[in-house]
Design a protein that fits this description.
Length: 138
């Protein structure tokens, strides 16, 4: 799978106007489909919701700036280690992220768009996962 920055940015442009409602939908989906991860989050997830939305925007904005993106993702991975996150949680998060993006992108969500977002999420999980594992073993 390859990342198509044009598809990522154009689909995100369709999703972005929905604002934090996207992140709220994501968490609702995640907790409904993977209730075991709920304990990793505070009862009220307003702050986390805002962080997720901001992080997603940073990923899209820096998609073609590899050094910046890798640095951001490594930092996120190390921080998630402190929260008790495990690499095993990443597939559930990815499934909820893709479902959320598809929901809000509507007709802009094509097979190619999904494949490109799947590839982006692969980069996210690989980079964050390495940093998370390193932090957990430190």
């Amino acid at each position: 799978m390859t990342i198509n920055p044009v598809l990522i940015k154009s689909s995100f442009a369709v999703v972005e106007p929905h604002g934090v409602v996207v992140a709220e939908y994501f968490y609702q989906h995640l907790f409904e489909h993977s209730p075991g991860v709920r304990g990793l989050f505070a009862e009220h997830i307003d702050e986390q919701r805002d962080r997720l939305w901001a992080a997603l925007g940073v990923v899209v904005a820096h998609l073609e700036e590899t050094d910046t993106l890798v640095g951001v993702l490594r930092d996120l991975g190390a921080r998630h280690a402190r929260y008790g996150a495990l690499v095993e949680h990443f597939p559930a998060v990815g499934a909820s992220l893709l479902a959320t993006l598809a929901h809000f992108a509507g007709e802009a969500w094509t097979e190619e768009t999904e494949a490109s977002w799947t590839a982006v999420y692969g980069v996210i999980t690989d980079t964050m996962g390495q940093a998370l594992t390193t932090a957990q073993n430190a």
